[in-house]
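Hello forum,

I keep getting stuck at the same step: I have a sequence, I want structure tokens, and every attempt I make locally crashes halfway through. Rather than fight my setup again tonight, could one of you with a working pipeline run this one for me? It's a single chain of 335 residues.
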Amino acid sequence: MTRRFTVLGALAVVCAAVELVAGRGMSPGVVWDVLNGGGDATERHIVFQLRLPRLMVALGAGACLAVAGLVLQSALRNPLAGPEVTGVTPGAVLGAVTATALGLAGWDSPLAVVLAACAGGCAGAALLWLLAGRGRGDPAQTAVHGVLVSAVLGGLTAMVLLVEPGELGSVVQWLVGTTEGRVWEHWHLLWPWALVWGAAAWLLAGPLTLLRCGDDIALAAGLSVRRARTLALMCAVALTAGAVAAVGALGFIGLLVPHLAVAVFGADLRRSLPGAALTGAVVVCGADAVAQLSSRLLATALDSGRLTLPVGALTACLGAALLLLVVRRTPGRTF
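Reply #2:
Ran it on my machine without issues. Output:
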């Protein structure tokens, strides 16, 4: 297990290094010179005030989404219970967009965005909880109701756009998911939020492991199922809201990364929760590095200096392809 964490940590370092040198405007040699104390004022500003906070936000947001997904899947005993399909992510997006349209929040006031996204995420999760009713433990029913809730919340977001069309740019950033333009203020707001709620999720590792075994076994072990599930959902919503407020709705991170973490680190959540955080950080950081490299190649090929591929578009495409591959290779499995 120690070796697995070490390998994943080394992979995170590699992805971080690639992301630092992947952006346009500076060669890898110049970036390396700046990191060694050289470079002019402009180059140091680009590396330390633009690229480094972007890297840190990508790592933190990936960890938040992966842990939130694993907590949701464990609490609901549902392999499809990711933030994307349980109303949490679209609700958080709706909350952030609505607050921005009303002038209560914006990219220049990230604290207000976090609070609005958290309120929206709680509303989305509550709506799914009400619709699923007694059948919320059934993976198929939860998935169907999750799609319904996501569609409703997406429609409400579109209505906000109709009322305030001037907010189209910020809405697209939240809907697609991007790390473009993140600065140290976003990181300083994200890391304590992620640390507090991530620690709370880890403290719930024991109850969550029992919940994965079924309510009857959890009750026989003396666990208060309702209380443990409520606390777990609160952690998942808070982690998702923090990530959405920082980078928008990155698709499939909270749905697929938990499965990878459990496969690598086992079903004991005391190990798989930190493993999921590290795996999510690696996936988002790596995807952001690939997105930046792809943007450079496309800009060169199309002779367009302003072409940017958002990381959310890349994670959505790759995640959808991976999910389709898994479903086709295991047609007899109940998801």
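DSSP finds 14 helices and no strands in the chain. If your local run keeps crashing, start a new thread with the error log.
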